[in-house]
Amino acid sequence: MPTNVFFNHAVNTEQHLYEDLVVESLRMYGHECYYLPREVVEEDTILNEDVQSRFGDAYSVEMYIENVEGFEGEGDLMSKFGVSVRDTATFVISLRSWERFISLDSNLATSLRPNEGDLIHFPMSGSMFEIKFVEHENPFYQVGKLFVFKLQCELFEYSGEDFDTNVTDIDLIEDEQAYYIDLTMATGGSGDYVNNENITLSSVVVGEVISWNPVTRNLRIRDNTKTLVVGDVLVGADGNASHTIASIVDIMTMGNDGTADNLDFETKADGYLDFSETNPFGEVT
After folding, report:
1. Per-residue pLDDT tens over the stretch 237-251
2. What is the pTM of this model?
3. Host domain of residue 105
């Protein structure tokens, strides 16, 4: 038997009123967060994962955090790789705010809803979260329509992503955690490198400038894509500075990670592996 035609649970005026109340509540009790769409620069088509990602946009939007008593998850754990922080959080964003401010971004895999893999910056705690799952049917069709998305997130672990959002607190993540190389440039050359500009070797981009000290002639770069050697001439893409590498600081030392054991592993490996061997399968007689 069909439903009563004199009663309708999907009245447009009621839906608009309810949505206005939801949006107003989020703006009153929520927090100003930043939504960062992920741009996949290079994709592994075999494993279906991103090899290199970039975050170039940051959209300011109000979000409500459901975890009123603090972050959830497994908390802080001591593992063989150091302290592991496994906080989780659930953010709520309105459908209206999503459609107005974020949905038109060209890097979204789908514009219909927030995307898994995108990031949320929570300024109150200075935390960056990665979206793991998007629940779009909770609450379930109140007054016949969906009004919010619930984003289940985990604390983001930096792994070489490029941040160029022009939001200082966000871009600092790359500055503080990215693997970098210190180069000492030879006397002479011309011009000064500009922070955050690309540097090229034979017209090929090989990294990005973190800092340049013209007095000590120390150049610090990140996002290095090519093995550099003494004598290479590095040219700034913006300022056209040009200098020759005089020396390279030990690249196995992780200056911004005191717990890294790269140098220890490299030193011990030298006692087990003979890299001068030309025929590892036997000797030619």
Report:
1. 888 899 999 998 865
2. 0.76
3. 12-169
